[in-house]
Amino acid sequence: MRILQVDNWQWHRYGALRVSTSRKLYHGLIRGNHQVLEFSDRDLARYEAPLKIKPIGRRRANHRLLETCENYQPEMMLLGHADLIENQTLLDIKRRHPHLRIAYRNVDPLFNPRTVKNIQRRCEVVDSIFVTTGGDALKQFLHSHNSVSYMPNPCDPAIENQDNSGKENFDWDVLFCGIGKPDDPRVAQVANLEAQLTDLRFGVFGMHGNPPLWGIAYEHALAGSKMALNLNRYEGDYLYSSARISQLMGNGILTFLHSASGYQRFFRKSEAVFFSNDAELEQLLRTFHNDDEARKATAKQGRRFYQSEFSGQRIAQFILETTFNLPYSADYCWQDQVFRA
Questions:
Q1: What is the DSSP-derived secondary structure letter of residue 270?
Q2: Could you tell me the sign of the dihedral formed by the alpha carbons of 16, 19, 21, 24, in that order?
Q3: Is the same domain home to 258 and 115?
Q4: Nearest to residue 102, comparing CAs of 126, 83, 121, 86?
Q5: Has residue 191 been placed in a domain?
Q6: Which of 206, 197, 265 is nearest to 226 (CA)?
Q7: Cα–Cα distance between 114 and 174 in angstroms, integer?
Q8: pLDDT in tens, 226-277
Q9: Domain membership of residue 262 as a residue range
Q10: Is residue 159 part of a domain?
């Protein structure tokens, strides 16, 4: 299938990249033998803006998308966080190409009102919506013409290319990376863990005065970490996690998840570590730090499951089959999280 993937491809970062869900889905589509073309709305808006006049760059990026569809004739558009693309542009494209289907994916948390607003903005013009939160909260985005589905955060063997479950020497015993503002409960939570577990080496980035990590620096931190915390600003939205979970479990780093996430439906205790409060988390960190065989075994099983069930290729195929309402070619362990009007 000929697919146009419209997203923020971060060309202007010149290699200092954030880990990209769009890139993993791109790899997955290619591995599924689909023909895929990239379109980066933000980068093209910058390049097309004379004298850096943003409104002109935005209009030109939308014009270039119309032009690209005329030239490429895609059968499906996979739309990511391409905020500069207007709904009217998408409607014009669908009018000119009536057989085209548009899938939209959003990996931001629904507890952020801006995320809800962004998804609602696209409801009228896309054929399918994919969100990294599950449950009844997705039904608010249903319209007569679209489907709404949960999607896991994908991993990719070319990106999550480490297997820390087999390593013994690390820079960090516990890793946490996240942008923490002063009112973020994780700031105090992680500080308290550090104070209680003074014999563990904590690598904390994005808070406590330590800058966040991007690009190769982040890859090095992942490669050198024994265990990691997958903490969200708010715990309790069903199946929500930031994309961090794929980077941790996909690299064989023993991952600690809050039990309120609902991820027990996917991961057994032999694949990830679940905690319900900070006291339990502290105890579990100490237990696995002192039992390296248990740490290795759990991290290995978690990596095996994540790389298999939540691969970018598998999730990309799910997006395609859901968007075209095709019979599922695999038993996706989240396919009960597809909602139709």
A1: T
A2: positive
A3: no
A4: 126
A5: yes
A6: 197
A7: 31
A8: 999 999 999 999 999 999 999 999 999 999 999 999 999 999 999 999 999 9
A9: 164-309
A10: no
Q: pLDDT digit string (tens) for 166-176?
A: 999 999 999 99
Does 150 lie in the same domain as 241?
A: no
C-alpha to C-alpha distance for 227 and 210, rounded to whole angstroms: 19
Q: What HEC string does 86-111 produce?
A: CHHHHHHHHHHCCCCEEEEEECCCCC
Domain count, the chain: 2
Short-list 159, 293, 161, 296, CA closest to 227: 296
Report residue 299: phi and psi, to 5°: -65, -40
Angle value at C-alpha 51, between 48 and 55, nearest 5 degrees: 60
Q: Are strands 35-40 and 2-7 parallel, antiparallel or unpaired?
A: parallel
The alpha carbon of residue 303 and the mean position of all alpha carbons in its chain are separated, in whole angstroms, by 16
On whether both 305 and 316 belong to a single domain, the answer is: no
Q: What is the DSSP string of 199-268?
A: TS-EEEESSTTPPP--HHHHHHHHHTEEEEEE--SS--STT---THHHHHHTTT-EEEEEGGG-GGGT--
Statement: residue 18 has pLDDT above 80: no
Model-level pTM?
0.95
Residues 6 or more apart whose Cβ sits within 8 Å of residue 8: 22, 40, 41, 42, 43, 80, 81, 82
CATH number for the domain spanning 49: value is 3.40.50.2000
pLDDT tens, 190-224?
999 999 999 999 999 998 889 999 899 999 999 99
Co-location of 187 and 227 in the same domain: yes
Same domain, 92 and 181: no
Q: Tell me the residue length of the chain.
A: 341
The verdict on 10 and 63 lying in the same domain is: yes
- Collapsing DSSP states into helix, strand and coil, what is residue 35? strand
**Alpha helices (H) in the chain, listed in sequence order:** 21-31, 41-48, 54-72, 87-96, 113-122, 185-196, 215-223, 244-249, 278-290, 292-309, 312-323
Residue 16 reports pLDDT greater than 80: no
Token code pair at residue 192? 């308290």
- For residues 171 and 192, membership in a common domain is answered with yes
Nearest-angstrom CA–CA distance, 117 and 240 = 17
